Amino acid sequence: MTPPTTLLGFDLGSKQIGIAVGQTLTNTANPLGVIAVRHNVPDWPAIDRMLEAWTPDALVVGLPLNMDGTEQEMTYAARRFRNQLIRRYRLPVHVADEQLSTREARDRLARDGKLDADDDPVAAQIILETWFSEWKKPIAPPSS
Q: In the chain, what are the domains?
């Protein structure tokens, strides 16, 4: 049996980063909060504190793609951020498709009557849930 693994998920934006925590034992995630981004630079001391508090085994960054799967400016920013996380923390950093995560986050918040709540941490939660669903998919046997 694989031991539980803690992951932090990131929803990168131009002004802030939504963060969520999840674990592989139950494949669940919870929103944590946001970290500021100023002049395209994340608040690294705040990210340091999150990693110190949660001691994750791996990280997951949402990869924003256009609806047709092509890349956009924020895709490149997310890849840069992923590379910075790898260099800075020496942890595995996965990517997960974040298509429509913000819309889903707003829908969840609306259902809960939290129309004024920040959707970025919930989008990060959805990114982790997406990664969990992909991670748990069985590998198809080779075709004969």
A: 6-135 (3.30.420.140)
In three-state form (DSSP H/G/I as H, E/B as E, the rest C), the secondary structure along 27-76 is CEEEEEEEEEEECCEECHHHHHHHHHHHCCCEEEEEECECCCCCECHHHH
Instruction: Using CA atoms of 102, 107, 19, 2 in order, give the dihedral in degrees to the nearest 10.
Output: -110
d(CA 72, CA 127): 18
Give 135's Cβ-side CA count (13 Å radius).
19
pLDDT per residue as tens digits for the range 82-120: 999 999 999 999 998 887 777 877 788 788 887 777 788
Burial class (CB in 10 A: 0-12, 13-18, 19+), 44: exposed
Q: How far apart are CA 114 and CA 79, in angstroms?
A: 31
Answering whether pTM is above 0.90, one says: no
Q: How many residues does the chain have?
A: 144
Using CA atoms, how far residue 13 sits from 5, 10, 55, 127, in Å, is 26, 9, 23, 13
The single residue listed with the structure tokens 């298509």 is: 99
**8 Å CB contact between 84 and 43:** no
pLDDT of residue 138: 45
